[in-house]
Amino acid sequence: MKKRILLFVGLALAAAMATANAATMVPPGNRNSVQPDIPGASSRRTQATNTSFQAKYRKVYALLQNDAELRAKIRKVAAAYDIDPMHIVGAIVGEHTYNVDAYDRLQTYYVKAMSYLSSKLTFAYEGEDVSDFVERPQFQKCAGITDSYDLWECREQVWNHSFRGKTVGGTSFPNDRFGATFFQPYYAGQTFGLGQLNPLTALQMSDLVHKVSGLPELDVNDPNTVYKTIMDPDLTLPYVAATIRKSIDAYNSIAGFDISHNPGLTATLYNVGNPEQRAYALEEENEKRRAAGEPEKLPEENYYGWLVNDKLDELKTLF
Description:
This protein has helices at residues 2-21, 40-48, 53-66, 68-80, 85-98, 107-115, 130-133, 148-163, 178-182, 199-213, 223-231, 233-255, 263-272, 275-291, 303-310, 312-316; strands at residues 24-25, 124-125, 128-129, 167-168, 171-172, 257-258.
């Protein structure tokens, strides 16, 4: 009898701990009743090409609607990373609505991908290659990290703390993102391909994509292959999925929220980046709220994710 009681108590405690540790599911849909403000840069970029956000949305929708092979690729990759295909669709739609126009045909992305193999690209700033830059003593704390995501996250933090907007060793560094400074051979802020990935994000996701999809690991000393990877739809889709998977996992483990049922939130994080930092910031805010007896704040979508959730019913008809 005593053993039964102890067993019952043990099971009850385990259940209580599981309940306490369970992530709060963020429901589908938008938290904001109206779309948050769209950045001026996005509006200016769209106006400069004599188009509109609605026209760009219809164009990327048509690309998805007219290409059954692309939709099949998205389903297959989503299954491999255990995410709903709508998360990948949301990232693609958001990027091509607010960033650049989608190409009319998927084949164009393949052609562009091959063109990067014949270009001579470098990841450098003021003549200093990034592979040499990260050997500076400030990056010593990152030296023992083997996972590509953690390694490049560490290096980005060192950049922000020790170099961004500062003069170090006689070199003046811009007050800009690590990725925009070292990983944009053409112009700052440029992203590429169906998923509009930047090279730094691809390098971060290299190990996860290698593990799940079996693709070769990316090498920072081979920028041409990095660019080909993010331009080739067959190669870039796993990187899009891996980026989304990382965001879902970060918000679950750090902030205690399950965002896997809300493509607008994963699209938002795909747009703004740094999901772990944002998850920590949200958890810190909610700790203060709980201490003050206030309700927790749910993650919220930005203008980009708001559109994805707003159009979700229409996008679902494609799948």
